[in-house]
Automatic annotation (TrEMBL):
Gene3D superfamilies: Cytochrome P450. Its cofactor is heme. Keywords: Heme, Iron, Membrane, Metal-binding, Monooxygenase, Oxidoreductase, Transmembrane, Transmembrane helix. Belongs to the cytochrome P450 family. InterPro entries: CYP450_sterol_14alpha_dmase (IPR050529), Cyt_P450 (IPR001128), Cyt_P450_E_grp-IV (IPR002403), Cyt_P450_sf (IPR036396). GO terms for molecular function: heme binding; iron ion binding; oxidoreductase activity, acting on paired donors, with incorporation or reduction of molecular oxygen; steroid hydroxylase activity. The keyword Membrane applies. The chain crosses the membrane at residues 20-45. It comes from the Eukaryota. The keyword Transmembrane helix applies. Heme binds at residue 523. This is Cytochrome P450.
């Protein structure tokens, strides 16, 4: 650029002396350009050699810095242009997953941990990580929490676990993240789980009945919207009760639109650029406030269901406890922003995964037949709505379809951060106040780890049986033959005693199948998501014929790092009751 500018100026110069000076200046700037290029190349070569040498140093330290030709600018541009491609290259070395350090700004680095061994260390040390930054960012930028109250959440650096993080001095009564985590755990992994799942099942059956699908074909414009308005709404009713949606008929549609805009909100796009999205979020807040007022006026203790958890106004003990505690210390809009986070987190990725599972099943007529046959062999002529979803979840084929869908389509980050101390992670180290990321997608595509049956079932394709292990078939199961060889003999003996026939297995996958994270960072909603997802696709396949009206379904990429794949465009389809022969 400098050379071009000098040449243009030299053409306008007058006289021989000016021409000579212009050419001298031109050569001078050209020399400067060349020196800068050479310096960049030499720096890159030095960084690359240091990066390679670092790989063979087994002392515990930071992951090696990923080399770049133009510091800071190059990784930012490549990341923004195509994050999956850039990170795939940055987190692999000699064909294997590794960990690396990327400098995006001077003084600001992000550590990407992707090798399975380090990830297993992360899960083991997960009680030392502080998730406050991530939570507060989500509350403020995604769900619209007022800054005043977001700062209250930010001030609590004690963590969500029973024991406060080392170095924290937050008083017990101000441990808001612990209170929130305790409520979530009781609702989704403790005594509230079974009643919530039962309510979800009943609500879903009612939703499908309301569609009045008969023996003749009925046509719809968007398959994802069907799952959102049935399975998604059933989940909302199971947690919040029926009145949130009844009082606000547009709630589910607004939540649908909000989900589609969430990747843009996560980037901090301001209101004046996308005002409609902000108005939709505010409308959802108002929906919650309307529901709060109604429930406060009508709820009485004697209305709690016999299961001790549900009720017709607050929906669940989880919501009642949140009202008793949070409503006294923050305003309704703040509480609504937090509840919007629960509504989104409990529905949208589960909806997306259900959609993707159904796409894979319906695109394979043989798999449709197998699912129907499995259900008949296991449950006979029993009506699907009367089957305990947990029993469906114990079926090897259904569980494998579920797990393979998450392996192929969940592409989310687990964020790790230590606010008070360095955290050892085996070979590597997470320094105090540094941010680390683990992306599920690269672990799920690790060719060194996963079984492809010698390339017959590539990792970028759906294989319904990938997670089914047959003790009589050494080529079965999720682990590659090489990875299986390093499995300890004791673990193999335990597995063989527990399973004498075909079985679903995630044994040995702790650092590689990570759609929900791991350790104490694992998503507490995983059990509800699994049972809801399997119950939905088992019901749809066993009760209905469904045909998509498009041959190729393109997936959107903007959700990378944020959640689950979903169709880029609406998927039109037709549906009718299955005519059993």
């Amino acid at each position: 650029m400098l050379t071009l500018l000098v040449n243009l100026l030299s053409q306008t110069a007058e006289g021989p002396s000016q021409t000579i000076m212009a050419h001298l200046n031109s050569w001078l700037f050209l020399a400067i350009d060349l020196v800068l290029i050479i310096l960049c190349v030499l720096r890159y070569i030095h960084s690359a050699l240091k990066y390679r040498q670092y790989r063979f140093d087994l002392h515990q330290r930071l992951p090696p810095t990923y080399p770049s030709l133009i510091p800071f600018l190059e990784p930012i541009i490549l990341f923004l242009w195509d994050a999956p491609k850039f990170l795939k290259g940055a987190t692999s070395y000699a064909g294997s997953l590794t960990s690396t350090c990327i400098h995006f700004f001077p003084g600001h680095k992000i550590l990407f941990f992707q090798d399975p061994e380090t990830i297993q260390h992360i899960w083991k040390q997960s009680d030392k990580f502080n998730t406050v930054r991530m939570r507060v960012y989500a509350y403020k930028y995604l769900f619209g929490m007022p800054k005043k109250w977001a700062s209250v959440y930010e001030a609590d650096d004690s963590g969500p676990f029973p024991k406060p993080l080392q170095g924290s001095n937050v008083a017990p009564e101000k441990r808001i993240h612990r209170f929130l985590a305790e409520g979530i755990d009781k609702a989704l992994t403790g005594p509230g789980f079974a009643p919530t799942l039962s309510r979800l099942q009943k609500a879903y059956v009612n939703q499908m009945s309301n569609l009045e699908i008969g023996q003749e074909w009925s046509e719809f414009e968007d398959f994802r919207r069907l799952i959102h308005m049935t399975t998604g709404q059933s989940t909302i009713e199971a947690i919040f009760g029926p009145n949130l949606v009844r009082l606000n008929p547009d709630f589910m549609e607004d939540l649908f639109q909000f989900d589609r805009a969430l990747p843009w909100l996560s980037k901090g796009i301001p209101r004046f650029i996308m005002p409609t999205v902000y108005r939709t979020r505010e409308k959802l807040h108002d929906n919650f406030v309307t529901w709060y007022k109604y429930a406060r006026e009508n709820f009485q203790d004697h209305l709690i269901y016999k299961d001790g958890d549900g009720d017709p106004f607050w929906g669940s003990n989880w919501m009642r406890q949140r009202q008793k505690t949070l409503a006294h210390i923050q305003d309704d809009i703040t509480l609504a922003s937090s509840d919007l986070g629960i509504a989104w987190a409990s529905t949208e990725n589960m909806v997306r995964n259900t959609v993707m599972a159904m796409i894979h099943i319906l695109q394979d007529k043989n798999l449709v037949h197998r699912v129907r046959q499995e259900l008949h062999d296991s449950f006979g002529d029993q009506d699907i709505k009367d089957i305990d979803p947990k029993l469906l979840g114990s079926n090897p084929l259904l569980s494998s379809i579920y797990a393979e869908t998450l392996r192929l389509h969940v592409k989310t980050y687990t964020i790790i951060y230590s606010s008070h101390s360095n955290v050892p992670l085996g070979r590597y180290l997470l320094p105090k106040s540094s941010v680390g990321l683990v992306n599920s997608h690269f672990s799920h595509m690790n060719t060194d780890f996963w079984n492809t049956q010698n390339g017959l079932h590539p990792l970028d394709s759906f294989w319904a049986d990938r997670f089914i292990t047959d003790p009589a078939d050494q080529s079965s199961g999720p682990l590659s033959p090489e990875r299986r060889k390093i499995t300890t003999a004791s673990a193999t003996q335990i597995v063989s005693r527990e399973h004498s026939g075909l079985h679903f297995s995630t044994d040995g996958l702790d650092g590689s199948w990570i759609p929900y994270g791991g350790g104490r960072l694992m998503c507490p909603g995983r059990f509800l998501a699994k049972n809801s997802m399997i119950f939905t696709f088992a019901t749809l396949v066993s009760e209905f014929d469904i045909e998509f009206k498009v041959d190729n379904i393109e997936l959107e990429s903007k959700s990378f790092g944020f959640g689950t794949d979903s169709p880029k465009k609406p998927v039109p389809f037709r549906i009718r009751r299955w005519r059993r022969e």
